[in-house]
Amino acid sequence: MAHLGQNEHTIAKRSNLDDAFARLHKVSGEVKILRRFAGKRQPGLVSNAVRIMSTEQPEGPFQDYQKFLHDILKGESGRSMVTLCSGSLGKSRVVGLGPGGRTALVKYITDNRSRLDCETLSSLASLYKVPSAAELSLEDTQISDNNITEGDRFQVDESQPRRTSVSFGSRADSTSHNPNKDSSFIAETHLHDQNRKNSKGPTTVPLNLAAIEVLQDVVKEGHGDRLQIVFPDPFVQQPFMRIPLEIASKIMQKYTVQTA
């Protein structure tokens, strides 16, 4: 009986996934003909998705939906596909698919993008102010060589009072973990205003000997538990180390002395 119940659950999940596929094609077809959404609730669903994508979400359904939207946004025609997905399905249907169902849905959208996409979806994405992956910093800036200019740099804009957090992350290749590949480490400083409405891009600097010496001293002094290694969604961000601001200040002081 338990086995039968499990099969019924699997069939229900598959049915929900097939329904999601059908809804995507239905709404895509309507948009191509009408050059707008046919339903009254659809613009609100898109606006809700934009809000969820662009702000921090607690663990649970909202964060699951946010991760799904981010995965779609990072793909080709991401803004258009986010507009279609959110307008067609909404949060409840996407979250109800479960992790495996959401992964299958991302793959389906990737494989069928050319059939689903159209110019009107792009226009609707602009109308409802759907952000790009770059605007949400979903493109992993930690693995981009463009972040390191000639020489070392560590610049902090102190023109306005801001809450500062410092993290250390690896510039390792995000698609391969070949130990023979050359990789370096960078320190990343995120500056956010107190209301968290505006933010500056990360400032990066190589994690050099000065920084390593400070971190070693922290461990020797018995404060190693204050160094937190964070493992975020691997599709969104590389693992990194979060350290308290006062320790970061010591690194900055040593860094300034050694690079003066």
Brief write-up:
The protein is of the alpha+beta class and 260 residues long. It has helices spanning 2-34, 42-54, 61-73, 78-88, 90-96, 98-111, 113-116, 119-127, 209-220, 245-259; strands at 163-170, 185-192, 203-206, 228-230, 240-243.
Give a written overview of the molecule:
The longest helix has 33 residues, at 2-34. A 5-stranded antiparallel beta sheet has the order 3-2-1-5-4. The protein has 2 domains: 2-127, no CATH class; 141-259, no CATH class. It has 260 residues and is α+β, with helices and mostly antiparallel strands. Helix 1 (2-34) packs across helix 4 (78-88) and helix 3 packs across helix 5 (90-96). It has helices spanning 2-34, 42-54, 61-73, 78-88, 90-96, 98-111, 113-116, 119-127, 209-220, 245-259, and strands spanning 163-170, 185-192, 203-206, 228-230, 240-243. Mean pLDDT is 72; it is low at 140-206. Helices cover 50% and strands 10% of the residues. Residues 147-185 are annotated as: Disordered. Residues 162-183 have a biased composition (Polar residues). Residues 150-161 have a biased composition (Basic and acidic residues).
